[in-house]
């Protein structure tokens, strides 16, 4: 057989294998819990499900993840949703969610990237169900308005006015510096000398403030525990630790900052799973590039998914989301068109599934001639535009694939 005929035969066999082994969903807008029943067997022994996305500005990914979480909550007992957003903002919002509208719960917790019509049903569900909890694992502030004071007011402890004032001062100084320094990081420019000098002075003030807050918090430790407030106490400890680390690295070089951020997010996820909610099943919402479980990033460091302890990795299912064509939004909201994936890319193989949305499990697949692309270096389209090579089975346990995507409807 001529070489090109042999290659075409292998390609055709790979396509047929994808068709035979993938599960399809005909409509995201009409899919219900029964459409995800195939996941019950796949996830039956897993405590942590990582939900990736191939970009933050994709309406269909948010719709899919919202429906998935509904299924995981009602059918499989997952009761914690951990977002790639501020630990402080998400925990505080969840703690006082009875006092917030759905829009407030969403706008004061997660980054504005997910303040969309597509995620609104998820936040409605979180608000209406006390046992469904929202938490964040990022050390960056994800809202311009801190709810820590509102959280303090909701806790049955008579905090001093000075403690509350210190908390308020700390949060607003952090948010201001995050905004000011972020302007230069966005365009990868060096900070002006006067900005750098001013920040170094405020660093000392902020470190002293956190030290004082740590000391003050310790004085209420017994009262927290006596009143059954163990989780709020350890959260306050963790928040102060996160804020100290955030201040320390805020002015670091872009690559160094990204590396440190993934390290802290990994530490926070370990803490959430082992300390804060040790008996709960947990869903993690993040970008694909953060959840890869065995990779070095473009900046030559491991993302948080690759930094997990062996114990948590064994309890995890890493689920990436990919797309083929259409339009998506950048983090600043501007819309861009996806680039057509090359032949024999992950997106190309998955695009031959007959359904508009499909799922393919890697975790129980044995290598053969028809699926070796899963076990070899294969092109993926990062954000739908940039070619990268990964070994799918080494980085993920399965993928959801959407053929056509569109930008979110921001609120």
Automatic annotation (TrEMBL):
Pfam families: Erythro_esteras. GO terms for biological process: response to antibiotic. This is Erythromycin esterase family protein. It comes from Psychrobacillus psychrodurans.
């Amino acid at each position: 057989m001529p070489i090109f005929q042999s290659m075409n035969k292998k390609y055709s066999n790979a396509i047929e294998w994808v068709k035979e082994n993938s599960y399809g969903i005909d409509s995201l807008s009409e899919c219900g819990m029964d459409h995800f029943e195939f996941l019950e067997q796949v996830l039956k022994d897993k405590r942590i499900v990582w939900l990736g996305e191939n970009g933050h500005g994709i309406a269909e990914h948010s719709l899919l993840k919202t429906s998935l979480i509904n299924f995981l909550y009602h059918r499989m007992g997952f009761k914690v949703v951990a977002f790639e957003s501020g630990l402080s903002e998400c925990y505080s919002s969840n703690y006082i969610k009875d006092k917030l509208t759905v829009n407030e719960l969403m706008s004061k917790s997660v980054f504005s990237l997910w303040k969309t019509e597509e995620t609104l049903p998820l936040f409605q569900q979180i608000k209406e169900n006390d046992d469904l909890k929202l938490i964040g694992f990022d050390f960056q502030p994800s809202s311009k308005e801190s709810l820590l004071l509102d959280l303090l007011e909701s806790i049955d402890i008579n905090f001093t006015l000075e403690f509350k004032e210190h908390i308020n001062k700390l949060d607003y100084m952090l948010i201001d510096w995050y905004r000011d320094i972020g302007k230069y990081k966005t365009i990868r420019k060096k900070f002006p000398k006067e900005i750098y000098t001013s920040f170094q002075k405020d660093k000392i003030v902020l470190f002293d403030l956190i030290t004082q807050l740590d000391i003050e918090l310790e004085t209420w430790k017994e009262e927290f525990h006596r009143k059954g407030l163990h989780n709020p106490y350890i959260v306050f400890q963790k928040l102060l630790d996160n804020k100290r680390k955030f201040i320390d690295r805020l002015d670091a070089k872009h690559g160094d900052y990204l590396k440190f951020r993934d390290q802290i997010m990994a530490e926070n996820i370990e803490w959430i799973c082992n300390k804060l909610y040790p008996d709960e099943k947990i869903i993690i919402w993040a970008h694909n590039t953060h959840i890869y479980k065995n990779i070095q990033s473009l900046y030559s460091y491991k993302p948080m998914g690759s930094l997990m302890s062996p114990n948590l990795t064994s309890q995890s299912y890493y689920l990436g989301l990919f797309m083929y064509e259409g339009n998506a939004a950048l983090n600043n909201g501007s819309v861009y068109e996806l680039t057509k994936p090359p032949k024999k890319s992950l997106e190309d193989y998955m695009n031959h599934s007959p359904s508009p949305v499909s799922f393919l499990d890697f975790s129980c697949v044995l290598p053969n001639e028809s699926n070796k692309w899963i076990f070899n270096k294969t092109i993926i389209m990062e954000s739908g535009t940039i070619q990268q090579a990964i070994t799918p089975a080494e980085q993920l346990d399965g993928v959801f694939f959407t053929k056509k995507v569109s930008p979110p409807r921001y609120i």
